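Field: sequence (string)
Field: structure_tokens (string)

Example rows 1 and 2, in order.
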Amino acid sequence: MADNKEMLFDRYKFYSDEELQEITVANGYTEDAEQVARQILGGDRAEYKEYIKQQEEKHQKEYYNMTNGNTIGGILKVICILVMIFGTVGSIYIASQGYEFSFASFIIPELGIIISGMIFLGFSEIIQLLQDIKDKMK
């Protein structure tokens, strides 16, 4: 029984206060788990505060990266999508001029559209990767 509590203590010691408060029998945990969670909440957690602080900083950086990614890279991705959509519609329109659909009139401009769209996508990925490298260097 003591080994079980030690294992639970090791498992829960890095949990946040909110996570520890959710560890109750009513939420499907065992009584031992609830006791260990209360012990950790009521005890001195000074030795784990540095670890918890690092975890919070890590989560803040991840949130920053998700919300504040490189704007230019995002704009280039949007341009890529727009070029491919409007280019394909334009190729279909050009190919359907006349009495019947001409596959050759469709495929030739479509190849140029795909290549130019992929170039924009490649530039956006390069910018995103450079931003990731910059963020890791900080």
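Row 2 begins here:
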Amino acid sequence: MGREIPKDVIRKKKIKLIVKFSSLFAGIAVVIFLLVSYMKASIEERAITLSEVEEGMLEVSVSTSGKVVPAFEEIINSLINSRIVEVYCQGGDSVDVGTPILRLDLQSTETEYKKLLDEQEMRTYQLEQWKAKTRTQLSEMGMKIDIAEMKLDRMRVELRNEQYLDSLGAGTTDKVREAQLSYNVAQMELEQQKQQYENEKLVAEAEQKVKELEFDIFRKSPAEMKRTFEDAQIRSPRKAILTYINNQIGRQVGQGVQLAIISDLSHFKLEGEISDNYADRVRAGSRVIVRLGSDQLEGIISSMTPLSSNGVISFSVQLTENNHPRLRSGLKTDLYIMHAVKDHVLRIRDGPYYIGPSTYELFVVEGKELVKRKVVLGDSNFEHVEVVSGLNPCDRVVVSDMADYRNKTKLKLK
């Protein structure tokens, strides 16, 4: 029968095992830590992007985004209250000048137009009737003046006869006075009639101008109605692509309701927005660089809104090559608006490290190592960033993403 092992012995054996395994695990942990540290403390040169510090010109820009839109786009609205009767085209169809797009119900408009034509004809007859009546009245007044002049001539002869007889003693002074008075009265009446004739003539001329002006104003109504009637027969105003059409046959449409949109999808422009904080840097005529993937286009700001809306300013960009094959309506793009030029500055390539003028910690090549250095960066454009301080010409700087090594001050370059 065996002896019982003392508890002290058992406890000592357990302690020895625990210490042995603990030391083993600690050693393994140290090895792993050193291995990981070694792996993290080095990097292959082919895994990073380096930029050499160089001196040159920097065309300063502000960046924003934009959207490609057709260079020409026309919205066709209904000019009358009507309903859609027929649709001749569908969205995406190519249309030429005068191509019928859809037809509205124009019966009521045509009836109104014919009614206006009838009223215009009636007003024409009324105007001619008034002119004839006025000519007749003036003619009668002219005739009365002619008769009054003949009467005055006769009275002049009678007055001379009475004066002659009175000089011979065959007449009387009273008859001479009576003839003289009749002559003077007739002369005054004639002057009055002439003055009345001139006044009536002036009044008639003025009234005729008023009536003719009223007629011309009214005549514009059927002309406008005719133009509306013709335009209500919806046709394409130019060669383009039909990008939208209201094809709900039978639907009532009010005046001003959108019926169709035609766009020129062979030429494009860009619409952009930028914070009003950059209002002093963005102006009409500013040069713009447009990035389309690996392609780069140039343009200028052709127009911009004079006022800020919700903190942003809208603008349009006219492209030098507005028919580039990569341009598509609705495509989002990066825009770089040039607003200043700096000569003889130190610069490095732009990259994901740069978020604006500030102080950065960048890795710089020193022999076989990458050493973290504090660098002050200034303005930028779509290609380069200005170096204010911290770097020298010909220094090589890492411009790729180094977020995984933010806690390292040195890295071994392999």
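free_text_note (row 2): The two ends are 69 Å apart (CA to CA).
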